[in-house]
Amino acid sequence: MCTIEKRGSLFILTLTGDGDEHRLNPTLIASIRSCLAQAGSEATRGAALITVSQGKFFSNGFDLNWAQAAGSKSAAADRLLHMVDLFKPVVADLMALRMPTIAAVTGHAAAAGVMLAMSHDYVLMRGDRGVMYMSELDIGMTLPDYFTALVRAKVADPAARRDVLLRAVRVRGEEAVAMGLVQSAHGGSEETVEAAVRLGEELGRRRWDGEVYGEIRKALYPELCGVLGLAANAVTPRL
User: Fold this and answer.
1) Family, per the entry (predicted)?
2) How are beta strands 101-105 and 57-59 bridged, if at all?
3) What is the pLDDT of residue 239?
């Protein structure tokens, strides 16, 4: 599950449970969407969202155990496709959210967990432990169209995209910075969250119009937003 807490102008979305891998299943996905909706409805100028997690994992991707618990291979495949469909609006929600967004990746992020992080405007990662790992090639799964569109939108270097998706490399903090997967790496979990809060406060002091911010973000990533079904709209200037 997750919680949302407002601290001044910052919304802190926390994936809860120290012993949890924060696997994305229908329950957690619905909880994340509810928290994002709450942040969006309560946002004012200067708001920013920071997503953090408890425990050793940021998110270990889709809940494959939940899928396999369906019994037959066909039923498990149906459950997996259901999670793929349910998660797409989470990415859309983050791309449309009317405030800056920051992911503080303080643990392992795999597959859809990497996509959750990359859906934010900024990704900060701890440098002492934890990896980002797109595992689909290793486990024999193809990628949804919005996954590849998100990687193309957020990772500028073709060689980095190749290594992440076609070599399934496990990337640690400093290497992730060099590859352009994250903006910065920090000493540990606490330092990473503190850096995310500082960044959120810095962005918040600009007191941007959230509607304008969200529309510019959508216009910046036209391919991704097209796949997500998001259209950028002009905003009447408020002079």
Assistant:
1) Belongs to the enoyl-CoA hydratase/isomerase family.
2) unpaired
3) 58
Nearest to 110 by CA among 141, 78, 75: 141
Q: Retrieve residue 208's tokens.
A: 């941007």
Cβ-contact 233, 215 below 8 angstroms: yes
pLDDT of residue 71: 87
Determine the straight-line distance between the first and last CA of the chain, rounded to whole angstroms. 42
Q: What's the pLDDT tens digit per position in 204-215?
A: 999 999 999 999
* Cut 0.85: pTM above it: yes
d(CA 167, CA 174): 18
* 3-class state of residue 216 by DSSP: helix
How is residue 127 written in tokens?
């440098």
pLDDT of residue 224: 97
Q: How many CB atoms lie within 10 A of CB 221?
A: 19
Owner of token pair 């969006």: 40
- Residue 211 φ then ψ, to 5°: -65, -45
156's tokens: 């500028």
Cα separation, 103 vs 161, in Å, equals 20
DSSP-derived 3-state class of residue 83: helix
DSSP state, 142? P
Cα–Cα distance for residue pair 91/86, rounded to 1 Å: 10
Question: Mapping DSSP to helix (H, G, I), strand (E, B) and coil, where does residue 59 land?
Answer: strand
Closest C-alpha among 167, 159, 36, 176 to residue 94: 36
- Please name which of 76, 161, 157, 86 lies closest in space to residue 116, comparing C-alpha atoms: 86
Q: Given pLDDT bands bounded at 50, 70 and 90, which one contains residue 18?
A: confident
Cα atoms found within 13 Å of the Cα of residue 168, Cβ hemisphere only: 11
> Which amino acid is residue 177, in one-letter code?
V
